[in-house]
Amino acid sequence: MNTAPRVAIIGAGQGGLVSANEVKKRVPDAEIVVFEVRNNVGGVWNLGDTPKNYEIRFDDFGQAHAATSFSHYSEGVVDVKEEVPPSAIYGSLRTNLPTELMSFRNDEHLESTHRFPSHTEILKYLERFAKKYGLTKLIQLGTRVLRLKHADGVAKYKCGYLPQQKGRWEITLENVNTKQQAIEWYDFVINASGHYVQAHIPFIDNLWKFEGDLFHSRFYESAEQFRGKSCVVIGSRASGYDISREIAWLDRSPEHGQSPYNSVKENPGLPSTRIIQSRRSPPKYEWKEERPRWLDKIEQRGEVVGTHGRSVIYADGHVDHGIDVIIFGTGYTYTYPFMRPTDEPWKSNSVFPQSNQSRKNVLDDIPAHLRLPYTLPDSAQGSMTLVNLSKHNLFYLSDPSYAFVGLLRHVHPFALSEAQAHVIAFVLSLKERMIPSVLLQESYEADQFWTFPTEFEMTDEMLLAINEGKDYHIEKENVWSWYRTPEWVLKLAESASKDKRLLLGY
């Protein structure tokens, strides 16, 4: 940009920190401010010690919504928010990726770090990263973004060019401790707020009639809270698998590695726990090595399609009776309550797909104490997909002075976030102001789900667009530069699940 830009970054997790660092390096005269609602850097990796209390309510069409409290919602107000949201991680969590894939380029973990790090080790890594690169002075902790919109009189976006208007974005901020509010203006905004806040609960017919407990993995702390119960876990990715495994350990300890729980096998006086895992596709446990016996404690079922009383009904007609709790390990929706649908540019060009509500109104069928007493806007209830974004999930196509880092699911988050931040910083530094056309190609709905090796192919494509993705002919082992993704990274990514099973036993 021709003059020093004011850059606002929402979130001081891995995406926000690396964005601040990349912009700081590429555009040294930029005025950078990072807004973080928590009182420490690290984002979702801040476990905290606040009990994860929660409520689940149903809207008029039987869709379940989960939050720590619904008391912060009010009729007609669209800046839906919680107090500082609890982290989605839990005390026993170990990453499912090795240290090389859970770090930024040229910033290795300490030698003492576990091969598959704990959440505490990841948090310490991010704290060191922020301190090493002088990022802490750029961060306003305990600050919530309440509202983000175009400032009055914003000029229309000229296709293909980075908007140069000063003060293009108006941001309303709130100090979470004093509740004082302020309005500030910025030229460029990077949304690095993550996607582990709004719990996603898929629609299940008559779920509101289930007489047991409903639970989402966002509020998970320990398998002990389910000891002695009959549990159905819906979902089989990271959280669904981890919770099913830990509940199985209540009855049978792992043969390899350590369990934080006393098991029924070693302590016969403890109550037995039943664990059923529901998934849409058949299980793909690739246990070519000896199959662990605790895995036999997990009963496998198909997709859940309904409930009645304490019974759970599956798509194949099977019914399990006497179920005490349904646990949803079903991920998260994208929610940006600060992007109010009555404000521009969101009013004209939303990032949320149009709602296709085809279910009937079942309000009269829902018990009064389970009803959501008002209608949530799309920006608050969220969506599993986003639209109006560029192919690489970087830029808001209606105004690329608004960018995203870390949107994608089921990827290697550190490397991809760093690459996205690297490209965004390059665009900010452009003198000609024209953005490489490949970076503004339109995305398509559901493009937030990249799988291996798509994320690395997309990363290479982004770097090639800014002339930094050429083949690195003198490739060194365990060195990851800004060139095309090295072969050792691809091999490590492909073998990560097997490597973890061999090392940890799960």
Automatic annotation (TrEMBL):
<dbReference type="GO" id="GO:0050660">
    <property type="term" value="F:flavin adenine dinucleotide binding"/>
</dbReference>
<keyword id="KW-0560">Oxidoreductase</keyword>
<keyword id="KW-0285">Flavoprotein</keyword>
<dbReference type="InterPro" id="IPR020946">
    <property type="entry name" value="Flavin_mOase-like"/>
</dbReference>
<dbReference type="InterPro" id="IPR036188">
    <property type="entry name" value="FAD/NAD-bd_sf"/>
</dbReference>
<dbReference type="InterPro" id="IPR050346">
    <property type="entry name" value="FMO-like"/>
</dbReference>
<dbReference type="GO" id="GO:0004499">
    <property type="term" value="F:N,N-dimethylaniline monooxygenase activity"/>
</dbReference>
<dbReference type="Pfam" id="PF13450">
    <property type="entry name" value="NAD_binding_8"/>
</dbReference>
<dbReference type="GO" id="GO:0050661">
    <property type="term" value="F:NADP binding"/>
</dbReference>
<keyword id="KW-0274">FAD</keyword>
<protein>
    <submittedName>
        <fullName>FAD/NAD(P)-binding domain-containing protein</fullName>
    </submittedName>
</protein>
<comment type="similarity">
    <text>Belongs to the FMO family.</text>
</comment>
<dbReference type="Pfam" id="PF00743">
    <property type="entry name" value="FMO-like"/>
</dbReference>
